[in-house]
Amino acid sequence: MFFWEEDSIEYELFKQYELPLIALGVDFSNQDVCDALEGCTYGLEDAFRSAIEYILWLKEHDREVFPNAVLISALQRQWKPSHWHSGYFDKPDVQSIGQKWWNGAAKMWGWDIRNQLVSDVCYEDGKEFILFMNGKSLLVETAWRWGWERVREFAET
Asked: Is-contact 121 98, C-beta < 8 A?
């Protein structure tokens, strides 16, 4: 699926916006989305930002949302964001389940304990993993099913 070298600006931009767009419903395995990404020769960040803005606007106004179609249009028509601000990344709709778990761990355990137990939350092959300081890892989906106490015990042993 990747059209860019891992050390390219385009790849870096893609990785920055990938999880928020997935959280909003974009399917990067969809062939039409892949074709639009491949055909986008410039304005990639503007297209990502515009798609996020518009999808959020549609959701806020209780309109039907087709995230793939929105991103494809933004890429092909080179949309420019009209009211972009980095605060969009803090909206729950834009956060991945891993980001929501990370924030929840700070609320449930406190920042210090979370930071002592959790090394990182990472995304790989369509899955989000929690990496613990003890060397263990756990799928974020599993962590949500287990609950806070069981995950903390797992991280501490």
From this structure: yes
